[in-house]
Specification:
111 residues; mainly alpha; 4 helices; two-stranded antiparallel ribbon; extended
Length: 111
């Protein structure tokens, strides 16, 4: 695992744990920054084009949602709702996994 330190919103140290396979991808992003217009003075991995600030994921998500012409309710696409949906799916998957593992254990004991 690669551990990278940064600053949180409250200016405390924040750590991000990344799998080792992501380091080459991040190195490639950093190497290609100047080719796409990210200034050399921008210190962020996901820096904005022609600016010294970082990208805001929730803002980018909103912009993309409104650009998709096939969406009936683009205002319903939000990062908060996405996090809630992912948490719900994880809980459902965990419940089903636990349920099926319990069934397998019970079958192996009874047979």
């Amino acid at each position: 695992m690669v551990i990278s330190a940064g600053k949180s919103r409250k200016n405390n140290e924040a750590y991000v744990i990344l799998p080792p396979g992501t380091k080459p991808a991040i190195d490639m992003l950093v190497d290609k920054r100047s080719a796409v217009g990210v200034p050399a003075t921008n210190v962020y991995v996901f820096g904005r084009l022609n600016a010294d600030s970082s990208m805001a994921g929730h803002t980018e998500m909103k912009e993309l949602a409104y650009k998709c012409s096939g969406l009936r309710y683009p205002d319903r696409i939000s990062s908060r709702r996405l996090r809630t949906y992912i948490a719900t799916i994880c809980q459902v998957c965990h419940t089903f996994t636990f349920y099926f593992m319990s069934l397998q254990c019970m079958q192996s004991v009874c047979l």
